[in-house]
Design goal:
Elements (H helix, E strand, L loop, with lengths): L3 H6 L22 H7 L13 H12 L3 H4 L9 H12 L4 H4 L4 H10 L4 H4 L10 H18 L4 H19 L3 H24 L19 H21 L14 H11 L3
Helix pairs in contact: 5-7, 5-11, 7-10, 7-11, 9-10, 10-11, 11-12
GO cellular component, one term: cytoplasm
GO molecular function, one term: 5'-deoxynucleotidase activity
Catalytic activity: a 2'-deoxyribonucleoside 5'-phosphate + H2O = a 2'-deoxyribonucleoside + phosphate
Length: 267
């Protein structure tokens, strides 16, 4: 991957990496305007009479990678929008006992909105050292910018208000819909964890992410997670018979468990 400096300072664009957007870093206190001004190319135009500027900004979700996997050397892993797309599909499969109690249409929208702020904030993980209040501040400012500054006419502005309200509902995590989507967020992570491990044929242990299953709150979604983790145990059990593969217990260190517990406590 080309570094941000290579992409912004080189006299020629890095064609090979046009599908990858590095996290924009700014000096001093984090501020939306600083980030927007540092984005290569023209800054999005605010106050227009169409949502075109918003559409352009959303593209960054397609090209910004989920950072947790990159720590393990997975450079061409899923993007933020990859993650949210599968979440929206998963949300359609609410078991009958849950589906009759929730607004599935809102859940699908919430899946596609909940990480929207990461297009400017980036995917901040528990190991990045950014306190939760600061992470929340950055995301809230970004959602203000996206839903208030990029819509000019009243009809589009109403859609922006709806997007912001759904994002707020997810962040508050008080409604059944938001709790369901929080669980789906973790379920999608567990699925991707195992899929990367299987693709690596036992050469990659992502067991630290299995921890999120303990933070799921709904009986129906916990059942999915339990089934997946049983599948994972069988996979690693079979790999133990292969030379050079030690297997994995899916646990995490006490220090990392505490860090993750603090990070996911709001969920």
């Amino acid at each position: 991957m080309g570094s941000q400096a290579e992409q912004t300072n080189s006299s020629k664009p890095d064609i090979a990496n046009l599908g990858f957007t590095p996290m924009v870093k700014v000096s001093g206190d984090w501020d939306v305007q600083k980030v927007v001004e540092a984005i290569p190319g023209d800054a999005p135009k605010t106050g227009g009479q169409s949502p075109l500027a918003f559409f352009h900004m959303i593209e960054r979700l397609k090209t910004t990678k989920r950072e947790g996997w990159r720590r393990f050397g997975i450079e061409r892993g899923e993007s933020i929008s990859d993650h949210m797309y599968r979440m929206s599909i998963i949300s359609m499969f609410a078991p009958p006992s849950l589906a009759k109690r929730i607004d599935l249409h809102k859940c699908m929208k919430m899946c596609l909105i909940h990480d929207m702020a990461e297009l400017l904030v980036g995917d901040i993980t528990p190991v990045d050292g950014v306190p939760k209040p600061e992470k929340s501040r950055r995301e809230s400012l970004t959602m203000d910018f996206l839903t208030k500054n990029l819509f000019g006419n009243k009809d589009d502005a109403a859609i922006g208000e709806d997007i912001r309200a759904i994002w707020d509902e997810y962040e508050d995590s008080k409604t059944l819909e938001s709790q369901y989507v929080h669980d789906i967020d973790k379920m999608e992570l567990l699925l991707q964890m195992m899929e990367y491990e299987k693709r690596a044929e036992g050469a990659l242990d992502l067991g630290e992410f299995a921890y999120v299953s303990s933070k799921m709150t709904l009986e129906e979604t916990r059942a999915w997670a339990d089934e997946l983790l049983e599948e994972r145990e069988k996979f690693w059990g079979a790999k133990k018979h292969v030379d050079g593969v030690k297997g994995v217990d899916g646990g995490v260190s006490e220090e990392k468990a505490k860090m993750q517990d603090e990070y996911y406590s709001r969920e």
